[in-house]
Design a protein that fits this description.
Elements (H helix, E strand, L loop, with lengths): L22 H7 L4 E5 L26 H4 L2 H4 L2 E3 L3 H4 L6 E5 L11 H16 L2 H4 L3 E5 L23 E5 L14 H12 L18
Parallel strand pairs: 1-2, 1-3
Antiparallel strand pairs: 4-5
């Protein structure tokens, strides 16, 4: 979702220190801010193992050397408690991941739904969202028994939800063509005029949201 490639890893125990380009790097090169906000992250810039309900493999930024080897880039990995304060002047990209208490993977669906009900209205009411903001809500996998895939060779994971809320964008649009996480990456890159990374170059954006 942030680099256009699995970099040879197909499980939850990927090696860190990957040398590859990322969406974070694209924002940095264009002079645009980015932040990753992770619920229950122990501290700013933390790139270590699981702690409490924070799960390392739900944080893609810690796997890339271009981020972890540079203190300034690593400092953009932040505890979720900093997210609310950022809404008045948000960076170009805010990447938000709930902990196992609210992600519907290790928690109940209702717990995750209530978490979204608390936060999505706050984001939509913020100055940042009202200034051409977009919210993309998605999941990283479907039911574990669903091994279907689509759209590109080797893609599996089944059907999963995707919701877009775009200030001033199209309303009540239902996407009918199947897409992948690479399509979401391409959508973000297209919105900022970035060159697509990896497999994102071989897919279309999800829709014209911007």
């Amino acid at each position: 979702m942030i680099s256009g490639s699995p970099h040879g890893c197909n499980n939850n125990s990927c090696e860190r220190g990957i040398r590859g380009k990322t969406l974070a790097g694209q924002f940095a090169r264009h002079g645009l801010g980015w932040r990753g906000y992770f619920e229950e992250l122990p501290r700013r810039g933390y790139a270590g193992d699981d702690v409490g309900n924070y799960v390392q493999h739900h944080n893609p930024f810690v796997y890339f050397r271009s981020i972890t080897a540079k203190p300034r880039q690593r400092s953009h990995i932040m505890p979720f408690r900093a997210f609310r304060r950022s809404l008045h002047h948000p960076p170009g990209l805010s990447y938000v991941v709930p902990s196992d208490l609210h992600n519907m993977h290790s928690s109940s669906i209702i717990d995750g739904d209530e978490w979204l009900q608390r936060w999505i209205p706050r984001i939509m009411a913020s100055r940042g969202f009202r200034h051409h903001g977009a919210i993309f809500i998605t999941w990283d996998e479907a039911d574990k028994t669903d091994l279907s895939g689509c759209c590109m060779a080797g893609i599996k994971g089944g059907h999963q939800p995707f919701v877009a809320i775009v200030h001033g964008g199209p309303k009540h649009v239902r996407l009918t063509k199947r897409r992948t996480a690479y399509s979401l990456l391409r959508t973000i890159e297209a919105g900022f005029g970035f060159r697509p990374l990896g497999r994102a170059a071989h897919v279309r954006p999800l829709a014209k949201f911007f």
